Amino acid sequence: MQQSKLPLRILIIYGLGCFGWSIGLNIISVLLNYIYLPPSNSGMHDLIPGTVWFGFVNIISVILLTGRGLDAVLDPLIANLSDKSKSKLGRRIPFMRWAFVPLSIFCALVFIPLYHHEHPVNVWWLAGTQMLFYFFFGLYTIPYNALLADLGHDARSKVDLSTAQSVGFMAGAMISASSTAVVRLILYMGITSDRLTAYQYAIIGLNVIAAICLAVPAFGIKERQFHSRQHTTGSAWRSLTTALRNPNFRIFAMADASYFMAIAIISTGLLYYIKAMLRLDESLGTGFMLAMVVITMLFYGVVNRIGTRYSRKTMMIASFAVAAVVFGEIFFLGHVPFHPILQASVLVVSFGIPNAFLQILPNTVVADIAHEARDRAGSNEEAMFFGMRAFFQKIGQTAGITVFAMLITLGKDPGHDMGLRMSGVVGAVLCAFAAVVYIFYKEPVARHR
User: Fold this and answer.
1) Are 280 and 287 contacting, i.e. CB atoms less than 8 angstroms apart?
2) What is the C-alpha R_g of the chain?
3) Which of 43, 153, 304, 394 has the fewest CB atoms found within 10 Å of its own CB?
4) Containing domain of residue 277, as a range?
5) pLDDT tens digit string along 85-110?
């Protein structure tokens, strides 16, 4: 049975799921490069060989590219299995229940290599654990995101659900960024004197919190109350081609992937910017992340209020353009006559405004596209659109992390940081490209429902 208005309880439960997977995703994004190939003034040692091929390709970039590339290929299959599910629990909830525990376990294991120093075995450990993490991440998040289209049957409910998800994501990003402050506390209390071990303790604790939150929507949402028993009977290939033949979806996916590539580059570089370019303690990253989250959430109310009144296309283009300007600021960090803390503050605060729009609007756009395709073709393949979005996101994120790993071969240490500065330039170009591509998007009629 479909309900026209979603209760606040459902919005909170749904948002907690995103809070859980955001913790895991952001831990990987922010800390993976930093832990395995730390800057020289971090107090830690490289865990994998720093071998570089062709002047810019290193081991970690190869691992990320192959692991996430394989994972991205599996996403459409997961989406099709979810769309075809005949479980009495619904089409989405069973997958979420299967995935939430291993998702958190493998997120922690990524950072617990067998050796605390550079060793070839750590390469294989990283390759295997990060591949399994991203597999279970997709197994949870693709059905989870498809719930937005299943639960939200009008523009207002879709924006509300997307806002709840975005609040959860930003809160999870803030909590994951707090790992540096937790590490400092662990070292101060004398629990361990080894910095890597302290990071591992912090990451394990955060993943326990993440697992609990991931379980909330998996067990707290009665999917059948909000969605009919209809399921698709098509093959994964037919569902995939249906999504890819949609011109609006292709345009959206190209812009979205470009933006996520930029975000992956900047997120991966955050601790490097603070430690190597601004020469501040990395524990300050928690404060900067908190400031960005506060600014972002302050503007969530604005986005939620105007998200159904004005053109989402215009708001998306403007947000991409502003993000391009903000990322361009990174090139000048440490080279302007202001205190380093002020420079970092301006960066994170100025990003909070476009980030608010780009956290909420994209999922509502995908839901619009899925609903329009459903009404036109009479099929129920919402998960495939979200699955294909996840596919392109992962391509973008993988490319972003890989590009960053390549860029730091040009310099990642104090006084030798050209690779870090160029990461800001690349991020700015990618956001500008996303803005240009999105000009060709045509808003579907479903948006107005």
Assistant:
1) no
2) 21
3) 43
4) 14-222+235-448
5) 777 777 888 999 999 999 999 999 99
The two tokens of residue 128 are 């295997």
CA pair distance 31, 40, nearest whole angstrom: 15
Q: How many domains does the chain have?
A: 1
**Backbone phi and psi for residue 49, each to the nearest 5 degrees, phi listed first:** -60, 140
Of 125, 174, 56, 64, the closest CA to residue 412 belongs to 56
pTM for the model: 0.70
Within 70-182, strands assigned E span none
The answer as to whether 4 is a domain residue is no
pLDDT of residue 427: 93
Q: Look at the alpha carbons of 127, 172, 153, 295 in this order and tell me if their dihedral is positive or negative.
A: negative
Token pair, residue 431, equals 């956001």
Mean pLDDT of 184-196: 88
Q: Compute the residue count for the chain.
A: 449
- Gap between the Cα atoms of 436 and 426, Å rounded: 16
Q: Which residues contact 345 (CB under 8 A, 6 or more apart)?
A: 288, 291
Query: 5 in a domain, yes or no?
Result: no
> What is the spatial distance between Cα 245 and Cα 57, in angstroms, rounded to a whole number?
34
334-384 confidence digits (pLDDT tens): 888 888 888 888 888 888 889 888 888 887 888 788 777 766 765 555 666
Residue 26 identity (one-letter amino acid): N
